[in-house]
Amino acid sequence: GDLSAVVLAGTATLSRAGFLAGLIGVLTVPLLYLYGRPRLELRRVLATLASNSRSLLLHALVAIILVVALLLTPPTRRTLDASFRNISGRFRGGFLSSVQEGRQPYFVVGWAIWKKNLWLGVGPGNYERALQQKRALVETIEANWYPTGSLPIQGSHVHSLYLQTGVNFGILGLVAFLYSFLRLLLALLRDTRGSPAAIEGVGLLAAFLLHNLLDVTFPSLGIEMGILLGLAFNTKRL
């Protein structure tokens, strides 16, 4: 379902946090299902799978044939080889070391910008302008973290949704943002015993919230708020 699409998308981006967040999100769904559903329901699911075993095996066989055919083509092999080299490079020195090298400089710059505009932030769309105003700090950090100049600090965000929300909207905006997610998460948790969609929603939120500790998966906070509103209108007890 939607959770599978999120996991595949996170994997395709080769995101370090994406792998971890996807794993947590996937594990959340069966745990909540087993917690909230009786054994009879689980037996019913297993019986349904057994009754459709031929169809499932046929689909699995077709999928395996397609995957093998793709793996045998030179362009696919070259792409996979480059991807694996990219992944191994990202995790060189361990997860914490890679996060420190690839994210901590952004966090330092982001906090330097935010603390000058603590309550209301710099405003949406103004991060890059604020970054230019901190050019001296950026150059100092780049010289310390990236002496070869191979990975300069640039782009439109600080690689953390929560820090970016603070930079853009200040403490007031961050509190409102987190409150909205908390209300949505609590509403979904209340409905997990009677709604498979709510269980998947919790898994999606778990993956989303964890991933965004080290990334910003949407370019605009408006997109996220739109998703929140859509889910809110479809949740009875929000």
**Mean of pLDDT:** 78
> How can the largest sheet be summarized?
none
Which descriptor suits the 3D outline? flat
Question: What integer value in Å does the Rg equal?
Answer: 22 Å
Helix content: over 70%
Structural class: mainly alpha
Helix segment count?
12
What gap, in angstroms, lies between the N and C termini? 23 Å
pLDDT < 50 runs, ≥5 residues: none
Strand percentage lies at: under 5%
List how many beta strands DSSP finds: 0
Taken in chain order, the helices and strands follow as: HHHHHHHHHHHH
Q: Could you describe the 3D structure shown?
A:
This protein has helices at residues 2-12, 16-36, 39-51, 53-71, 74-90, 95-102, 104-114, 127-133, 135-145, 161-191, 196-211, 221-233. It has 238 residues and is an all-alpha fold. Helix 1 (2-12) packs parallel to helix 11 and helix 7 crosses helix 10 (161-191). Helix content is 75%, strand content 0%. The longest helix is centred in the last third of the chain and has 31 residues, at 161-191. The chain is built from twelve helices and no strands.
